[in-house]
Amino acid sequence: QVQLVESGGGLVQAGGSLRLSCEASGRGFDTFAAGWFRQAPGKDREFVSACSASGRSKHYRDSVKGRFLVSKDNAKNTVDLQMNNLKPEDTAVYYCVARAGIGISPRDWEYDYWGQGTQVTVAS
Q1: Angle at the Cα of 46 from the Cα atoms of 16 and 77, rounded to 5 degrees
Q2: DSSP string covering 55-124, please?
Q3: pLDDT (tens digit, 9 = 90+) per residue, 80-124?
């Protein structure tokens, strides 16, 4: 069993930066792909970014490429999301996710573990 706890959300002006961090408890995090989804009010949940189990392979949704950077540290059991040049459309609740197996997936139903979510609000 893996538990995920996010931190680092908040309010920021457009163009600013935030860093989200997710710490995993339990065993075997180094065998889990992990990353982030988000959900804005009135919208479907969407894939943001994820790392393979080793952290070497990374995927991003098109709208955040070049602005967000995901990183996985298996020694610390963490997966972080550095968000730069934030835009109002990035406003959402961000969820840390993990799935058994090494592969990244953009599909939310393929993730076994979810954090409680952290609010990110970008003011224009």
Answers
A1: 70
A2: S--EEE-GGGTTTEEEEEETTTTEEEEEE-S--GGG-EEEEEEEEEBS---S-GGG--EE---EEEEEE-
A3: 999 999 999 999 999 999 999 778 999 999 999 999 999 999 999
